[in-house]
Write a structure and sequence with these properties.
By secondary structure, the chain is of the alpha/beta class. It is built from 17 helices and 22 strands. The strands form 5 sheets. Strands 4, 5, 6, 7, 8 and 9 form a 6-stranded parallel β-sheet that branches. Strands 15-12-17-10-11-16 form a 6-stranded antiparallel β-sheet. The protein has a 5-stranded parallel β-sheet with strand order 20-19-18-21-22, with helices on both faces. The radius of gyration is 31 Å and the shape is globular.
Length: 536
Amino acid sequence: MRQIQVPGDPQQPAQVSFANGQQALVARSSGALLSAPQAGSNRRPLTPMSWALLLSLLYLAGCLGIAWRWRRRHPQSSTPSPLLISYASQGGQAERLAREAASYLQAHGQPARLLSLDQVDAQVLDDSRQALLVLSTYGDGEAPDNAARFARQLLGRDLALSHLRVGVLGLGDRHYPHFCRFAKQVEHWLRRNGAQPLFPPLWADQLDPATLQQWSQHLGQLVGDSQLPPTQTPLLNVHLTERQWLNPCSPGAPAYRICLHTDALPDWQAGDVLELRPQAPATQVTTALQQLNLAANCLIDGVPLAVHLAQRQLPTDANAWQALRALDADAVLARLPLLPLRTYSLASLPANGELELLVRLVTLADGQPGLGSGWLCQHAPLGAAMQVRLRANPAFHHPPTATPLILIGAGTGLAGLLAHLRTRQPGAADTWLLFGERSPEHDRWYSDALQQALQDGRLQHLDCAFTRAEPAQYVQDLLSLHSERLRAWLARGAALYVCGRLEGMGQGVEQRLIDLLGASTVDDLRTSGRYRRDLY
């Protein structure tokens, strides 16, 4: 043997040259012989000794290739490899939890790589050793908008993920028929492809505190920290200052403008949402005190028992009440879970000096008002104290100032669009609002404010659709009616923001956009962040 040439690229084969002039190629990754020794017309064949030497070199090259691949998967460093944290989020809850987890881990010496699920591909998974996934389920068990591409491109593929350990937190609501379905699909796909669990998957029903506490404990175990991170930010005390009925005599359910005030107004931006703790009406609290034979002014942690009970899920059958009667007040409260928070789009900005909501009164099948809407629209007296929390919703934040903006919504979805309209500056970029409701006589909400926006240049076009008009129109029909304008605005780089109910309006707008623009264009708009939705 005369020479071995080893290229710098580990993917390129090594070349072996022998004293008799013959040459052969050897794969460095596997040690396989890629070409038989080549000899000239007057060259002697390889001797047995040469063949033995060549085979030894092949074996050595194979070992080097295996070692190279192992070191690539197991880099030698005193610094821990980054832990992948990814989220699928529509309303901002999953993203918030993922960001908090990343900050906590990094503060305790564990590097973290934070990505939305659509940024995760096969290479990202191959490069990761550990991962935490916080996954919401949207609509009828579907992937959130920032996970749709992942669901379409990866969930149907087979990948080798035996090197990966994953912890999954699914967020959902058991009132919906497909509780955490998307999160469960991802977790099943990971297991099927060989990924191992960091801990058993967690399924949080309306962000229930017990499940979030388990999540917090697992984060602490990852970094060996006994001081666990908080699972929720504290609630803020506010007061109900205004309740205005927006649509008297409308064929639709009553809708109200609700204003809340606090001396220490927090900061937020257009697209963010408000979480509110509803309360049971006073009549239900009085009945509960009678059932329990307890005094309303009995103090628990310095707060009257009646106030505590107003924030609890009260029993609805005689047997449940009977089981509570033998307990003292503290034990009763320990048995009764807190009422779940209700989420509302914010119509105002901090500069407006108040938290402004649009709330439609919901009537349940038994004729009773909805939990949150009943409290805000009917039962709470003006001046009533309430507890709220602001939640960032980055997926619906305002686009860059110079971006033309198309706002589409119906009913109380106008709230989230108003916040964006109030962010616009005259002359900075064009804005177009398409709004749908029922009656043209009784449902022209915020007409004075919208006309003022047209006059001062914050709004260039206002188009309204009414289902009880002649002819009847839905908001998606306006897209067809103004399809040329729609295409022209999108060609100029406009962003599409949709706010309101998913069922009906949200689905109808999505399908009409697909009909007018094509599914691939709509998908590209979504992926680029130019098509954003805040639907409920």
